[in-house]
Amino acid sequence: MNITKFLNKVYFTPRLKEIELYTDHASELQAGVLRRLVRMAANTEWGKKYDYASIRTYEDFKKRLPIQTYEEIKPYVARLRAGEQNLLWPSEIRWFAKSSGTTNDKSKFLPVSKESLQDTHYQGGKDAVAIYLGINPESRFFSGKGLILGGSHSPNLNSNHSLVGDLSAILIQNVHPLVNHIRVPSKEIALMSEFEPKMEAIANSTLHTNVTNLSGVPSWMLVLIKHILEKTGKQSLEEVWPNLEVFFHGGVAFTPYREQYRQVIKSSKMHYIETYNASEGYFGTQNDPNDPAMLLMIDYGIFYEFIPLEDVGKENPRICCLEEVELNKNYAMVISTSAGLWRYMIGDTVKFTGNHPYKFVITGRTKHFINAFGEELIVDNAEKGLTKACAATGAQIIDYSAAPVFMDEHAKCRHQWLIEFAQMPDSPEKFAQILDDTLKEVNSDYEAKRQNDLALQPLEIIVARKGLFHDWLDSKGKLGGQHKVPRLSNTREHIEEMLKLNFKE
């Protein structure tokens, strides 16, 4: 008997019937989520502060609670990490997902509750499988095992009772014991902190396993795949795992890697499903292989609100609930969750492509950034690095722009910085080294990607000719006023134009 068909019929198909309610009952589902969240948190310190017991409608909730960023919740997080409880959410908070930092912090530590694990993150994973099996009824997904590539964790403030780490590591640590029978590698290997030994251990432990599915970040998974192919001497991954059929990917955009995956996985039967599982919550799953948009998962422990991108940073921004969003308009996402994040702006921007059901694409961050490989480099990081490099080398900068260089045939990548100097550094090599080192100091995700040059090579600096950025702005009709050179870009669109101009006299 095909075990996949049996499990699909008994377990996953009934869930798809519930997901079908997203099409016509989104408002009711979201209203129910908000009522449940407010009711459960009414007796927490936060709930008492904002008198959750008297909240009856979304309008009450909206008028009473301010929009939050990490800076506002940081004091609560510090107290939670020190062991206090019942602050933002009633159940015990033992886990903290470590994410890239803010202007003032190298890392953020986001609370993870047992409810957010079960009703959001794990439910998202199960629903991703349900959606995939609905699209591919002849799948043999459960005839083999799933390879999950995650991060690591460590004790929180030296307490073994509480853990801090990548969300993926927290999920692996707390997964139901039955799931361990259908996934690889072992928990011991999966949670190793050193990436290169982990890659070797994963390869050694899975080469002779029947792997049918992969889950992870595209950039890191590609490093693992190329290591396995090099180790085995095979030309494509299906020669190692002939029953491989799907890769659930997320964390960074898949587009830059798509062609490279075609080169290492040549099977026409391979499927790719994008998921949106952030440290703050599981938000979406691609439900149509021919449509890059993801289905917004609206019956988890997450209530959604949205701020039009042009209103972000305003004192009184427009804020709308799900039923009020417009299609093809950029919004900053605001969430309230069963981990105790209340009206929390996560920094991601999305655009809705459909509302029956609600489907969206990720359009970026609320500020300029580079997150091509999961490094989440922000302008503030760049400014700190450049300031330090200039001070150490006597350099002076007129303007700059930076963008990613995507992986080459060796699965390597880097950041490319185009800088116009008013005063050249006394040593360009020293300038680059100090900039790179400072970025590692102020951004833990960049530091992780740069470790041992494994996923991200040392940055490259190209000296811009005099007047380059002036000429580029002029070519765009954007001289004067408030027009600015994009300091950080997640694509190469701008920097390629600048590089072409850089070689013109």
Automatic annotation (TrEMBL):
Cellular component, GO annotation: cytoplasm
InterPro entries per record: ANL_N_sf, GH3, GH3_C, GH3_M
GH3 middle domain residues: 296-363
One Gene Ontology term of the molecular function aspect: acid-amino acid ligase activity
Domain named GH3 C-terminal: residues: 381-493
Pfam families named in the record: GH3 (PF03321), GH3_C (PF23572), GH3_M (PF23571)
UniProt feature coiled coil, ranges: none
PANTHER family documented for this protein: GH3 DOMAIN-CONTAINING PROTEIN
Full protein name: GH3 auxin-responsive promoter family protein
Organism: Bacteroides clarus
